[in-house]
Amino acid sequence: MGKSLRVAYGEALVKLGEKNDKVVVLDADLAHATQTCMFKEKFPDRHFNMGIAEANMMCAAAGFAHTGYIPFASTFALFGAGRAYEQIRNSIAYTNCNVKFGFSHSGLSVGEDGGSHQSIEDIALMREMPHMTIFVPCDPAETEKAVMAAAEINGPVYIRVARPVCDDITTADTPFIPGKANVMREGTDVCIISCGLMISRALAAADLLEKEGISAAVVNMHTIKPIDSEIILKMNQTCKAIVTAEEHSVIGGLGSAVAEVLAGHDGAKFARIGIQDKFGKSGKPDQLFEAYGLTAENIVAKSKELLK
């Protein structure tokens, strides 16, 4: 078993802070939940608890960036992308300000916190802002790479961080190039394009399909923006069907981004697996993934349906 992505995020911030004294971390009274408490312990003078005032935190982060620092602003995805949307848009994205967002507790996997706290529209909200880069890492190793890559990019970057403990899927040697998807598996019948916590389910679906004689490619679209159009169009040519799988609404997230690339191109049949225009509800993460169809079995069923 690996570790939680939020723990990997906290550890990566400490490593980054050791290498770069311009890195500062801001949190909205959730340092133990987002795991920025690790950075606070190591660099108390570079960690700022802004209190339950997310909008203020974003404006302060912009101020840090304008004076040459590299701020990482952390809170829950719902409070960051949702409550502080206007400040992110006008004070940060609008001015192409060098602020990084590490928003944890994204998606259905927040579980028992229920629909009010399950951020299933955060990618959509962040994706439509000009200048924004969006990373959705799938495991601890990729989370660390996303943090390091974010610090190298000049401009706003959103790293979507999840709460559950998850398996190691990639290794330290797996490449992480912003805007360049990783093909985790080659295939010719169906291509499963996925990101974040759905990658393990996409790989499991490919195994199940293989047992039925169906060749499935799996693409890890760790960068949602800028999207890797090249790999999407290539898979559109080499496979008969494309299925996207995400722990986010099918409106405005990975599925929408892939559909936008495919629009106007003939080729593969296409389907989106994700949250189908509904809010979340309370339950254990695995139960919720099951209830909303975010399973390997549903990816298999959808793939077979398209290939008929």
TrEMBL record:
Origin superkingdom: Bacteria
Pfam families for the chain: Transket_pyr (PF02779), Transketolase_C (PF02780)
Cofactor field: thiamine diphosphate
Domain Transketolase-like pyrimidine-binding: 3-169
Biological process per Gene Ontology, one example term: thiamine biosynthetic process
Record's keyword annotation contains Calcium: no
Keyword tags: Isoprene biosynthesis, Magnesium, Metal-binding, Thiamine biosynthesis, Thiamine pyrophosphate, Transferase
InterPro entries recorded: PDH/Transketolase (IPR051157), THDP-binding (IPR029061), Transketo_C/PFOR_II (IPR009014), Transketolase-like_Pyr-bd (IPR005475), Transketolase_C (IPR033248)
GO molecular function, one term: metal ion binding
Family stated for the protein in its record: Belongs to the transketolase family.
Protein name per Swiss-Prot or TrEMBL: Transketolase family protein
Species annotation: Candidatus Enterocloster faecavium
Taxonomic lineage from the root: Bacteria, Bacillati, Bacillota, Clostridia, Lachnospirales
